Amino acid sequence: MTEQPALSILKGHTVHQRSIPFVHRFKYGLALIDLDIDRLDEASQQSAFFSVDRSSLFSFNRRDHGARQDAPLRPWAEEQFQNAGVQLEDGAIRLVTFPRHALYKFAPISLWLGFGPDGALRGILYEVNNTFGETHTYVAATPESSRHQHGTDKAFHVSPFFDVSGTYEFTLKRTADQLSLVVATKTKSGQSHVATISAKSSPATSRAFIGVALTKPFSTLGVTAAIHWQALKLWLKGAKYHSKPKQSPVRTTIATSRSAAPQTAPIPETTA
Q1: Beta strands in the chain (DSSP E)
Q2: pTM surpassing 0.90?
């Protein structure tokens, strides 16, 4: 088995579509980083435009994730995996997330991928953040499969235009050079929202980071602005506003495997 580089770039796009009570759709290009949390020193040496725990054009700070401390990330991640009965036996943990860009970062979702010593994916942490500075983690074991599906009750306030009700269905497919994620929100009225990420892996070179800065600004610096812009458009369309509830002290939810679950309805190719 060939060892993956400490750091890679994933370039692609995200699509969001609301279906209830009206259709609202948007699509943005994005760029993510995929890094081994045990090889951060090595990752910081791959490009002059990327650093770890210090300022650069792009960077990664440990305090943006997990326990939000300047401390090793593995103990926190292993504790979350163990909540779902996932034992990694010192296998690699890779974190797919938005990098900091010019001192700013907001990551709506980050994926922690936990592997066994044989390189097989054993568990996933879906680390979700909202614009109020709150975070919640959905954790799931991953039975041997190339396509992983998990379901759980929604337990975290993400958007003021959706209440905290219904269920999430996560569908993740990851290969050595490609990642696909679908997060579908379902309520009693049906599928209310779908968010997708589709991205391909590329080497984390200095030229690649400069290209990201020039061609995909909404992936990092503009992600919060894009969220508020789409919120304004929803408000103008008449979407119901839901006040943010007090966050539950329980910050981890177990998602269960749904390998036999029906396919999530695809997002039709319509304009926003």
Answers
A1: 7-18, 24-36, 50-52, 58-60, 93-97, 100-101, 109-115, 121-129, 135-141, 147-153, 167-174, 178-187, 190-203, 252-254, 256-257
A2: no
